[in-house]
Amino acid sequence: MAEKQISLPAKLINGGIAGIIGVTCVFPIDLTKTRLQNQRNGHQAYKSIMDCLVKTLRSEGYFGMYRGAAVNLTLVTPEKAVKLAANDFFRHHFLQDGKPLTIYKEMLAGCGAGICQVIITTPMEMLKIQMQDAGRLASQKKILSGIHCSSPGTKHLATIPALSRLYNVGPTSLPKPVSATQIARELVCTEGIRGLYKGLGATLLRDVPFSIIYFPLFANLNKLGQSCPEERAPFYHSFLAGCAAGSTAAVCVNPCDVIKTRLQSLNKGANEETYHGIKDCARKIWLKEGPSAFLKGAGCRALVIAPLFGIVQVVYFLGVGESIIELAQYNRFAP
Predict the structure, then answer these.
(1) What global pTM score does this model have?
(2) What UniProt keywords are attached to this protein's entry (predicted)?
């Protein structure tokens, strides 16, 4: 089947709609993933996915489940548009005489898409993680206060002093809510634009392999639903193919996601390690928490990515963006 060509405005609309729907549906699980990944061995605030969800709901309320969602909803439209558009661009570029793409070229196209998207993904994840992890720090402080562990040897620190002021980090205080705009402003003022791109290498390490796995796997799974090469697969098959490919890729790169989350978490809890780069982070996690720590949040990540990319592919393959543009053009020129 010839590669489907879609205009850039349609891709923006498709990516935006799919991203907004997907993020709204699965964001509480994504928040749970971040908090579980940031937990070290010792005094853990959460024991499981459900325990984290229940405690977050009780202590922070319904809207606490969506802490950090605003920045995700704002940037998910360009992020998904860039990711999908870049993959389409590279797939089209690699096509020769209408021949189907080899698996190698499909992986290369996915690699290109992963590299392009980190321009938006890195600052989005950076801001989102600070918002999501604030509740975990508050819960940890309550636990430590209850068992009298706030001793001289117990540290409460923040990597960035400005963020320490915003979060009011201290041995006797709980984090106060701040906006993503405040965090972004403080980071830019103290570290410049590179402050928003902390963890860029780790983000590349996660997103490039993810795209290399996801796009070829989805394309081949989706082909199984086509009755003939000229026809599209049914929308439900595209949804299931997106879910299967997304969850598989998510679990495969989860160790990289754990490293990325740790590196991008600027505020630290009691006696939590600070890391100096990808190698240092991976080594300390391996030595102090064991290899199983690299799979923290893997279940949550699969639950987040599966429906998110399933929805993305349904919207993309149903041509929602194209339909909206056609309707707008019809209304514009209608008598």
Answers:
(1) 0.79
(2) Membrane, Mitochondrion, Mitochondrion inner membrane, Repeat, Transmembrane, Transmembrane helix, Transport
